[in-house]
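name: query_chain
kind: protein
chains: 1
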Amino acid sequence: MSTAAATVAAEAGVANASASGIPLKGLRGAIARNMAVGWQAPRVAMGVDVDVSACQAWLRAHPMAEGGAKPTITACVLRATALALAGHPRMNALLKDNVIECQGAVNLGLAVALDEGLMVPVIRDAETKPVAQLAQETRELAAGARAGQLSPKAYQGATFTVTNLGMTGIDWFTPVLNAPQVGILGVSSVRERAVVRDGKLGIAAMTTLTLVFDHRAIDGYPAAQFLQAVKAHLEAPDSL
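structure:
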C-alpha cells in the first residue's frame, strides 16, 4: 500500500471510530453526572447470602390474583427492603447540604435497564403495599419506562434504590449510590448451592444481597442491622 493510500485508510479508521462514539449527553450524560456524584461519597459495601428456598415455596403457595402480575422474588425483596427501611429510618434518608434528612415514607427506586441507559422509576409508600401489589407496580413501571410512557414525576422522590441483576446470572456486584440517597441494594442471581446446617450438608436456593451505603450518613453496625433485617424477612416469608 502506498503512503497516500495508507494515510487515507488511517483517516478513514479515525472517522469510523469517531462516528461510533457515544457522547455523554442526554440520558447517557445525566446517568454519567449522577454516577460521578454517587462515586464521590465515602461509600462502603457489605454483602450477605440469603436462603430464599422458603420464599420460593411461599410464592408457589400464593399464585397471582386474576388479572394481576405473578409475585416474584424481586417483589419479595422489595417488600422485605421496605419493611426493613421502615424499621431503620437512618437508611431511608437523603444527605443534602451536610444534613441527613430521614424520610417518613419509603419510596423505592427500581432500576430498569433500557437500551439507551438506566432509568429508576419510583414505587411510592412501598412499606404499605403487599407483595402482590409490588409485583404489579414493578411490572407496570418497568413496561412504562421501556416504552417511554412515564411522566418525569414517576422518576422523582425515591428514598432508597433496589437494583436487580439476577437475570444476568451474576453472583454479586456493588452498585453505585443514587445521590442524595444514602443506600442502594444490589440483588444477584438465585442459585442452588451446597450449605451446611447443624453439621449437615444440604442444598438451598441462595442469593447474595449487596448493600452500598454512604458512611457519612450511617455507620457500619446499623447498616449491617438493616441488611440482616432484609435477610430475616426473606428467610421467614410469612413476615412479608
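note: DSSP finds six helices and eleven strands in the chain.
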